[in-house]
Write a structure and sequence with these properties.
With 180 residues, the chain is of the alpha+beta class. It is built from six helices and eight strands. It is globular and about 40 Å long. The relative contact order is 0.16.
């Protein structure tokens, strides 16, 4: 499985996250507004983001999101939790983009690239989204995510957080809003 590809779309370039991306990525992540409705609402703080960044590097499925026009790092995302059972699945998550890249076409392009790559290798992709994170839940539905009924409880920022599980299968992706 290749979870460290280079993928190119019309507006975005995705490449493996590197240790030397810290400064550029933290410059984006240090905006508290990005995390305001996220369960990890304190991720804009350097020590908290450092743990997130180091975990992304350690798990070897993270990509830096580059704006092709400016060449700037504008966010990141990752694949994690590969499971070979029943045709295979992997999770896409931990995604954030600079506010300058919210709305419009950036997140759908990012997810189209990541889903296309993943679904060439597995049958389904899972997304775990904080139950109270309405912005991310709407974004997942907009790209074709289907709520599975799965729920997971974790601890983030010192409190218990419920995550809902969404999925996009190879078939639903081919017929969904991101199909090309």
């Amino acid at each position: 499985m290749d979870w460290q590809p280079v993928l190119e779309g019309e507006r975005l370039l995705l490449r493996p996250l590197r240790a030397d991306d810290w400064d550029a990525l933290f410059a984006v992540a240090s905006d508290p507004e990005i995390w305001a409705v996220h369960p990890a609402h304190d991720r804009w703080q350097a020590p908290v983001f450092r743990a997130f960044f180091d975990d992304a590097l350690k798990n070897r499925g993270a990509v830096a999101v580059i704006d092709k026009d400016s060449g700037a790092v504008v966010g990141s995302s990752r694949w994690q939790g590969y499971d070979p059972a029943d045709g295979g699945s992997v999770e896409i998550g931990w995604t954030f983009l600079a506010r300058s890249h919210w709305g419009g076409r950036y997140n759908p392009e990012l997810k189209r690239l990541m889903l296309g790559h993943a679904l060439a290798q597995v049958e389904r992709v899972l997304f775990r989204v904080g139950e109270t994170n309405g912005r991310s839940r709407r974004a997942i539905v907009k790209i074709g995510g289907r709520l599975t009924g799965g729920r997971e409880v974790t601890h983030l920022a010192g409190r218990e957080v419920v995550h809902l599980v969404y999925e996009i299968t190879r078939e639903s992706f081919a017929k969904g809003p991101l199909a090309q």
